[in-house]
Design goal:
Layout lengths: L5 E5 L3 H13 L3 E5 L2 H11 L3 E4 L9 H10 L8 E5 L4 H10 L3 E4 L4 H15 L1 H7 L1
Parallel strand pairs: 1-2, 1-3, 3-4, 4-5
Length: about 140
């Protein structure tokens, strides 16, 4: 059985996590769900997802920016694509997300198929055989 790429979805809204998870699963991804940055960090460093999708605003003491900074300090997660999917859409929010280390900043609302497409492209870029073909 082929290995399905894991996507870690981090949002404080269970409905939002489920909506995006349904689309990712339909597209052939395995989804990991987290509602807080601490839960997400634990899952990410234990299960090593192919990509992380997080909101800026999260329940708990840390937000998505802090999660991204922590992931970038982890040797195992340093190069894993991080997508910031957020309702925080001002230019300072985008700049903060980029400084934290996110690869793509997507404002909400975002259609699930559009998010899935972005994540699939990010994962494809990381595959060695795909990178060699693009050179």
């Amino acid at each position: 059985m082929p290995h399905l790429p894991r996507i870690l979805l981090v949002a404080d809204s269970a409905d939002e996590r489920e909506m995006y998870a349904t689309t990712f699963q339909r597209e052939g991804f395995c989804t990991l769900l987290a509602g807080t940055a601490s839960e997400a960090y634990r899952l990410a460093t234990e299960l090593l997802p192919a990509a992380v999708v997080t909101d800026i605003r999260l329940s708990g003491s840390e937000d998505g920016l802090e999660l991204t900074r922590r992931l970038r300090l982890s040797p195992a997660m340093r190069t894993t694509p991080v997508v910031m999917l957020t309702g925080c859409v001002f230019s300072h929010d985008r700049e903060a997300a980029v400084r934290a280390g996110c690869d793509v900043f997507l404002p909400k609302p975002c259609l699930p198929d559009a998010l899935s497409s972005v994540v699939a492209r990010l994962i494809d870029r990381r595959r060695p055989e795909t990178s060699a073909q693009l050179s």
